[in-house]
Amino acid sequence: MEVAGAWTAPSDPGPLPSAAVERARELLARQQRAIAALSPALAAARREVRVVGSVTAATGPAGAPAYLDVRA
Question: What span, in angstroms and rounded, lies between the C-alpha atoms of 27 and 11?
């Protein structure tokens, strides 16, 4: 199997063909909507990570596992 190398964008891609302008605008709008939708999710994930960190800091690291024999 052939592995492709890292892709490098051309330094001067030239003008966008007029036939592709509308599609490029649609893609940009979709990308901006996706970014806007992901921002609140990212903020929520960061809050959850902070909460988990504070719980671990308050309760200490997990101890050794324990076995409780409830049949006795």
Answer: 21
Site of tokens 């690291």:
61
CA 65 remoteness from chain centre:
33
| Contact between 21 and 28 (Cβ < 8 Å) | no
Q: Which residues of the chain have pLDDT under 70?
A: 1, 72
Determine contact, residues 16/24, Cβ cutoff 8 Å.
yes
Lookup result for tokens 């909507």: 33
pTM for the complete prediction?
A: 0.47
Contacts of 24 (CB under 8 A, 6+ apart): 16
Q: pLDDT tens across 14-26, in order?
A: 888 999 999 999 9
